[in-house]
Amino acid sequence: MRRTLLGLAGAVALLFGLTAPALAFEPVNVVHTEKVQAGPYDLTVGFSTWPVKAMQSLDFTFAPEGGVADKKGTLTLLYNGKEFNDDPLARHPRKREVWGLDIQALPEPGTWAFRFDIDGPAGPATGELKNLQVMEQPGPPMGLSWAISTIPLFGLVALIVIAWRRTRTTV
Amino acid sequence: MDITAVAAPSARVAVPRGLVPASVVLAGAVTSLVGLTWDIQWHTDVGPDTFFTLPHLFLYAGSAISGLASLAVVLLTTANTKRDKAVDPVVGGRAVGVFGRTFAAPVGYLVSGIGAALFLVYGLWDQWWHGLYGFDAVIDSPPHIGLLLSISITMVGAVMVFAVARDQKWGTYGVAGAAATLLTFSMVTVLGLRALPGGLVNTVNAGSAFFSVMILFMGAYVLNRRGGALAVGAVVAVLQAVFWWFSPWATEVYAHATGLPLRDYTDGVPGLPNMIPMSLLLVAVAVEVLRGLPAWVPGLVGGVIITALAPVQRILVYGAKFPALDRYVATVVAGAVLGALAGMLGRRFGQMLRHLAPVKENTHA
User: Fold this and answer.
1) What is the pTM of this model?
2) To the nearest 5 percent, what fractions of chain B are helix, strand and coil?
3) Cross-chain residue pair A149–B145, CB shorter than 8 Å
4) Which H or E element spans position B61?
5) B198 — contact with chain A (CB < 8 Å)?
6) Searching chain A, which residue's CA lies closest to the CA of residue B346?
7) pLDDT in tens, A15-30
């Protein structure tokens, strides 16, 4: 009984010992920055990987000079000049002193732009990060990735076909 | 110390054969579903991800529980076969040989076990993917769909192990529970259909209609009794209601416990529960009312109900805009065609499941 309890305690300690450090969320490492001028507001756009590749997720940070506390705004993503998405500028979950997008990927290669509509003490203004070049996606072609990932589905279909042929009578 | 014990056989409750392993497989499947709804909410409302978040542990544990239970049944059945002991097909169905005659595996547990084993393989594929593409929180990435499909296979196995015992009360309840779990889970897997070019058709809505009608029919035809479709639909509605409360609640509690803030501008809409068509109960009623007609008719009606009401649900929950009329009509037409097909397939799958064990009829149904 004592040995069982000791073993159990050891397993629990191992579980929490291993889990605790793993729960420490990675800090946001900015490896490249670009400057955007939105009227009176200086904005620094940070990237956690550079260059940006399609489908590869990264942390984006948007840091206005003077902080985010007295400002709000909207971020609009543009792909090849067309609006792709617009959302309010939200604080980065792991870097709360600035706005940002956490672990986000731009889905397509090509020319992207980020438009910032900012409203703050100096009034509303708009600025744009133009010509953000996104390179081709890394890794195997998507067709191959999907083929590998849907093997269970084809296995299930094969099972159904076999079962179908063996169960022609109604019970 | 006197350690002699008096045998008291009258005090022991006889557990029906096959109930325990089937319940453990279903418990694993439900654990996976809880992990999934929690994980989706976590990414929407909080964000940061590691391998060891609690929702992830639920997902891993779910497949582990189902997989180990399936393995135990397969090993026991193999041992009994080798000793020439009689194997009762009520435990997971008829045993089939695996790797020649090395293992004797009841077909239901073979399927649930293969699903759990595939989960491990796709876990590695997912790990490699995240190494290359980063720790994106995209639910419909190819490896994530592979993982979801693997869990779905375990859930199909869960339906099978209960379908074998459909002439007993626990088998009936189990089929309704397992089919509802599979149906609810599939509403996330269909997000993979976003990768398909649908033209005007909303492929996710059409896919939800197809899978929910098919699984509803499958459950109804395994049970082959009045109220079968309603039972599956009611369990789905209960899961939807419970998760509607649970997902945001658990996310908030876990965020507080780990000292993480909620995102700015979270809308508070439960992610997974909102993917389940609220109109499913209506579909179940339609299936019951149109029972006498060929399966494609109630199937078509079900497909139309789900695709026609999907935008209404989004309007009610999010305040979303009604889609463009041509897109709406195209999706409802696709829903009608796929619903009719799903009705026929679901009926046939139900009959296939009835073949799993040669049970005596008119004992229960």
Assistant:
1) 0.89
2) 70, 0, 30
3) yes
4) helix B54-82
5) no
6) A160
7) 555 555 445 677 888 9
